[in-house]
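Tokens as discussed.
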């Protein structure tokens, strides 16, 4: 408050030029505008689909938003830390399968033990009915979510520490191998449902009136829940990118040897970025599994991981808004089956077209074109102020 008052007094006395205040307000407006437009787009899309009688399309849009979270995490690793990961489909599956196993496995035989009673009192275990109406004792969705995050944190740390010391295609091959291992474990283990996956995952009641569920009555609620989660993560990652950590990651991306010579712990920063992106993928997997009521081994396939990387490339590796928009759009078109059996071919053609024409993502040239009529540099404003 004192600084604001001093600034106002300086402006009144003529000791501080007013164009600095206008520049600050303009910068704040430009910072908040994309987030406001994203929120307005979410509302406009839902209202438009309701008016057109196609509100059922929100189901695929919600799933696309959860998939977009994985690509946003990849944007941090690939676009800013300069690392290539082909294993994020595995982290998505780790989160989803951990939540699915814990919320569907019956712990009734342990119900009389002391530790089970303590977990029921702490709401870690909860009683419910299975698909056939039989009473079972399972982990609560909230406890399963925490367990999924802890498991992902441990695995990402163990995999990331040695893998991130590799560079180029060696790192890509290492993460691809990790993804293939997870896929084979999922397909070959009865606990994970083998090739059939796991069904009957219960809905997740986050708060009164806020439930993660695929029920048609909760379709709009879950759409806004997924959109709000994506928006919150975009705010978080943008602040991270503009912080000291983000500047260190960009330095590593541009010149890793130079960044290390300047005292930046490159291995530690790359590991933190990798673990954070893995946690985002696992979180998306948990929400997706509760929303769809199950998860299958295809979510851990190598093709899924490659697809996430391709979506990140199509939106611009270092463009949070670009990867969010392109990932949501292309995944939605794929889930709707718009291209039928030619889905992969059309997806590949669109990717080649986008990368060839706009390698930094389609939003950057579009933004430059929109700003041209209104662009005035700070130097011009200072000159005009001096002339006045």
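Sequence:
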């Amino acid at each position: 408050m004192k600084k604001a008052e001093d600034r106002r007094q300086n402006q009144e006395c003529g000791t501080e030029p007013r164009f600095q205040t206008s520049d600050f307000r303009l910068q704040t407006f430009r910072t908040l505008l994309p987030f406001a437009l994203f929120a307005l787009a979410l509302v406009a899309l839902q209202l438009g689909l309701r008016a057109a009688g196609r509100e059922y399309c929100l189901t695929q849009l919600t799933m696309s938003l959860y998939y977009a979270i994985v690509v946003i995490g990849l944007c941090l690793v690939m676009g800013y830390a300069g690392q290539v990961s082909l294993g994020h489909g595995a982290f998505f599956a780790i989160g989803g399968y951990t939540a699915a196993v814990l919320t569907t496995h019956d712990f009734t035989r342990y119900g009389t033990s002391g530790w089970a009673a303590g977990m029921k009192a702490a709401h870690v275990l909860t009683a419910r009915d299975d698909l056939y109406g039989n009473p079972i004792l399972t982990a609560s969705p909230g406890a399963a979510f925490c367990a999924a995050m802890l498991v992902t944190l441990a695995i990402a740390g163990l995999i990331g520490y040695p893998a991130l010391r590799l560079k180029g295609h060696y790192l890509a091959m290492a993460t691809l191998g990790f993804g293939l291992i997870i896929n084979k474990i999922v397909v070959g283990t009865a606990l994970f449902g083998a090739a059939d996956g796991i069904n009957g995952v219960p809905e997740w009641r986050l708060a009164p009136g806020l439930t993660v569920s695929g029920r048609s009555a909760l379709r709009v609620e879950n759409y806004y829940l997924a959109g709000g989660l994506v928006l919150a993560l975009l705010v978080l990652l943008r602040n991270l990118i503009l912080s000291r950590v983000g500047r260190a990651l960009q330095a590593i991306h541009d010149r890793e040897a130079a960044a290390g010579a300047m005292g930046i712990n490159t291995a530690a920063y790359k590991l933190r970025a990798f673990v954070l992106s893995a946690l985002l993928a696992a979180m998306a997997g948990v929400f997706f599994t509760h929303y769809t009521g199950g998860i299958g081994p295809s979510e851990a396939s190598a093709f899924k991981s490659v697809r996430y990387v391709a979506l990140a490339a199509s939106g611009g590796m270092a463009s949070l808004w670009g990867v969010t928009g392109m990932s949501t759009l292309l995944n939605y078109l794929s889930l709707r089956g718009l291209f039928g059996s030619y889905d992969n071919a059309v997806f590949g053609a669109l990717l080649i077209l986008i990368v060839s024409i706009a390698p930094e993502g389609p939003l950057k040239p579009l933004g430059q074109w929109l700003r041209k009529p209104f662009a005035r540099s700070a130097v011009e404003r200072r000159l005009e102020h001096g002339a006045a």
